[in-house]
Design brief:
Blueprint (H helix, E strand, L loop, with lengths): L28 H17 L9 H27 L3 H16 L17 H4 L4 H12 L8 H9 L6 E3 H7 L12 H9 L1 H22 L14 E3 H16 L3 H10 L7 E9 L6 E8 L2 E6 L6 E4 L3 E8 L6 E7 L12 H4 L9 E6 L6 H22 L21 H10 L10 H6 L4 H7 L17 H19 L17 E3 L5 E3 L2 H25 L3 H23 L7 H29 L4 H16 L6 H21 L5 H9 L3 H9 L1 H23 L4 H20 L2 H13 L11 H8 L8 H12 L4
Antiparallel strand pairs: 1-2, 3-4, 3-9, 4-5, 5-6, 7-8, 8-9, 10-11
Helix pairs in contact: 1-2, 2-5, 10-17, 13-17, 14-18, 20-24, 20-25, 21-27
Length: 781
């Protein structure tokens, strides 16, 4: 524990504060500024000879400590942003001038909050402005030693305490730690008002006694005993629990989604071993609660089911009469085929419980009902979020189904809170590694444009659950982390969607209802969420042009992230590479045979067929029907597909017979039986390599004089095509191709001589052998 009677070192605390090791910070500016600050504080704290230290001097010393601490924090944040303090001061002055120029009550779009909430969330001074800008430009979970660094940002004077004003301003900027609607409720749970108040009183008494013994009170900050605070140990435990819940691998949920045919990106809220008592016999299995579904995977048999939370109509508890097990009862409405398609997983895996239409679950616990009560709270909160969305006409307006990032230009605090929750990144275990690497971003570039209107986390929510359900999931995850901090007692202050059911668990095992003040604050938080969702719904009803532009921007970003996620790094596998090469050649063979078929016509192998094609092409040129050449090619391709069907199973075969015959053959084997495709492919690839090597030499200027001739020919072609109509050029090309076989094979024009003079690529090993042979045959001088 740090000595409170001396000037504290400006260090960031380690994850194990008992060891006393100094905190590592992302910047060394804290340590550089601590020397000058200590000297200044020592001069201020030392009274003059023969004079007692006055209360004004003590208060001035405390103000100096707070100012020096926050100045050092601002310097470190500026280093992280790669921006000088002078530049940040100019930006802060510009922001203040803009704020002063606005009318009272005007929305502050730069901070995404309204005027009435500026006292809690707006920056009070320059240090607050820099800290908020840093939190917006960085993802707190990707920072080194994030738990101690974020606590230092909330620490007012470096004495190891985070008070309510700093927590309410900074915690909502660290998603998923908190949001603007429930920040104060979360602080009260972390602070533990009654326990911390007794600690403050005891510490104040010990400080007074020590000050009387030493004859001075230097270094002891006058603390209001009634003001709650969060210690570093509590903060460290909470963040560690939150990160563990978000990043814990969930292989069972992944397998359950595959089995139930649920979207792979569906996010999990909670899972636990349970027993299904809905049928005649109890069935053990695994119970899953996600953002949209309540699912059960049976360990024995096929009694799996998938229940959408929007169909849940009631949650209660009961006790089985004979085996006396505490059970969770979920009443639901059977899914209708009108609302859900017949081939959806909801219909295929609908729970079948007869006329009772309820599900009964018990958990692996004896003589206590901790898990049952927790699941009662979780399922009630998630189902209540759907009821709340339906009651406020949010699902009918399409807001509950939107699969896009919420607009950041909203000016309500609750809107920013919902936007933070909706754009919150999924668990790291559910994301590909490439997506996690791509989400880190460029800190320097983000620092230039980052403001508190942007979220540092770059993940998008690809699934379309209701917005309120996503908020409820994040609040449940925070409550689970707080439960670990409270040593098993589930805090329900953050579960705001069903406040009538919320019960605070006590140490004696009983339950006491929330008092009126807590219920009132829950209702206020719920009102903020609903108001924000309605404002988002109004934003969705903007002009079609603004909606289209916003949608295009979101799609561009999401598609870019998906492309990056598909680029997984795989080790080189020679066997896999050889199989892929063989498969590529096999799939390429039909196109090679098609090219050979064109040569078959042009080379007059069948004179009648070649004459018919030549006459048809010349008629198209004469009648100016060249523009119909592409539709004719598509029609020929369609006829070719029909001929393949006839050859696979006959002209009168059914579609099922054609599909069965197609599974037993491939396009390559079909063409190989007719044209001996393997030999054709080999010869075609050899000819292609010969010509491609000449093209490569021509473009790499291996023979400059030949490349210059090629450029002159290109200029001539450009001039001719700009003057002569395309159909006459096409006719000339047809005549040239069809008359190649009539030429004297020994006659060579200037084009043939130019093409033959282009050097190709020597086969492997022949280049060195030819060089040695030339050197050996050279005459000796």
């Amino acid at each position: 524990m740090r000595n409170r009677t001396s000037e504290p070192e400006l260090e960031v605390r380690t994850d194990s504060p008992q060891q006393g090791s100094p905190l590592r910070t992302p910047s060394q500016a804290l340590r550089r500024r601590s020397v000058g600050r200590d000297q200044a504080t020592e001069k201020l704290s030392q009274p003059k000879a023969g004079e007692a230290e006055t209360p004004c001097a003590v208060e001035e010393s405390h103000e100096t400590r707070e100012r020096n601490w926050r100045d050092a924090i601002a310097t470190a944040c500026a280093d992280m942003l790669h921006v000088t303090l002078d530049d940040l001061r100019r930006r802060h002055e510009r922001y203040r001038s803009e704020r002063q120029g606005k009318a009272p009550g005007a929305a502050d779009r730069s901070f995404a909050i309204d005027e009435g909430d500026l006292g809690a969330r707006a920056p009070r001074d320059f240090a607050d402005y820099v800290i908020m800008k840093t939190l917006r430009a960085h993802d707190v979970f990707s920072m080194q030693n994030a738990r101690s660094w974020t606590f230092n940002l909330m620490d007012r004077t470096g004495d190891g305490r985070a008070y309510r004003p700093e927590f309410v301003r900074y915690a909502p900027l660290m998603p998923p730690i908190a949001d603007g609607a429930i920040a104060e409720l979360e602080f009260e749970v972390l602070a533990g008002r009654a326990h911390r108040q007794s600690d403050c009183n005891e510490e104040a008494q010990n400080g007074d006694q020590q000050g009387d013994a030493d004859g001075s009170s230097r270094g002891v900050r006058p603390v209001d005993a009634a003001e709650p605070f969060i210690g570093f140990e509590t903060w460290d435990s909470f963040l560690a629990a939150l990160v563990k819940i978000l990043t814990k691998p969930k292989p069972e949920w992944t397998e359950a989604k595959k089995l139930l045919q649920v979207e792979p990106g569906e996010l999990l809220v909670k899972s636990h071993t349970a027993i299904d008592h809905s049928g005649m016999f109890p069935i053990p299995g695994k119970l899953f609660l996600s953002e949209r579904y309540l699912a059960f995977i049976a360990a024995l048999g096929r009694s799996h089911f998938l229940l959408p939370l929007e169909l849940v109509r009631g949650i209660s508890t009961t006790e089985l009469p004979i085996i006396r097990r505490d059970c969770l009862v979920v009443t639901f409405e059977p899914p209708s085929r009108k609302d859900f398609a017949a081939d959806t997983p909801v219909i295929r895996f609908a729970p079948s419980t007869g006329a009772e239409r309820r599900l009964l679950f018990s958990f692996s616990e004896f003589r206590y009902a901790t898990q049952r009560d927790a699941w009662h709270a979780y399922v009630s909160e998630m189902a209540a979020s759907f009821w709340c969305a339906r009651r406020n006409n949010l699902i009918a307006d399409g807001v509950a189904r939107m699969a896009m990032r919420l607009p950041r230009e909203l000016s309500e605090t609750s809107s920013a809170a919902i936007a933070d929750a909706a754009s919150m990144r999924p668990a790291a275990a559910e994301l590909p590694k490439s997506a996690m690497r791509a989400a880190s971003g460029n800190t320097v570039e983000r620092s230039e444009t980052a403001d508190v209107t942007e979220v540092a986390s770059l993940y998008y929510a690809d699934l379309p659950p209701p917005v309120l359900a996503r908020v409820a999931r994040m609040n449940i995850i925070r409550s689970r982390a707080l439960k670990r901090v409270n040593q098993g007692a589930l805090p329900t202050r953050l579960l705001v969607f069903a406040p009538d059911w919320r019960l605070e668990s006590s140490d004696t095992g009983g339950a006491t209802s929330d008092d009126g003040e807590v219920l009132r604050r829950k209702h206020e938080a719920l009102s903020k969420y609903v108001a924000a969702a309605k404002q988002i719904a109004d934003g969705e009803r903007r002009s079609w042009l603004s909606r289209a532009v916003q949608r295009v921007n979101v799609n561009l970003e999401v598609n870019r992230r998906r492309r990056e996620a598909e680029r997984e790094d795989e080790p080189l596998d020679i066997s896999l590479l050889s199989r892929n090469i063989a498969l590529f050649i096999e799939l390429l063979a039909p196109f090679v045979v098609l090219f050979q078929g064109l040569q078959y016509v042009v080379q007059w192998v069948q004179p009648v067929l070649s004459a018919i094609v030549l006459v048809a092409l010349l008629v198209m040129v004469a009648m100016n029907w060249v523009k119909y050449l592409f539709p004719v090619a598509l029609a020929t391709y369609a006829v070719f597909l029909l001929l393949i069907r006839v050859q696979l199973a006959g002209p009168a075969a059914s579609d099922q017979a054609v599909a069965t015959a197609s599974e037993r053959t491939t396009s390559f084997s079909l063409i190989m039986r007719v044209h001996n495709g393997l030999r054709v492919t080999q010869s075609a690839l050899q000819a292609m390599n010969y010509h491609l090597a000449k093209v490569e030499s021509l473009h790499l200027w291996r023979a400059p004089h030949l490349t210059w001739r090629y450029l002159a020919a290109l200029a001539l072609v450009v001039a001719v095509t700009a003057v002569v109509p395309f159909r006459w050029l096409f006719g000339l090309l047809v005549v040239y191709c069809f008359t190649l076989q009539f030429r004297n094979p020994d006659a060579r024009d200037f084009v043939d001589e130019w093409y033959e003079a282009i050097p190709g690529r020597a086969p492997p090993g022949e280049g060195a052998t030819a060089a040695l042979r030339t050197r050996a045959e050279a005459p000796v001088t």
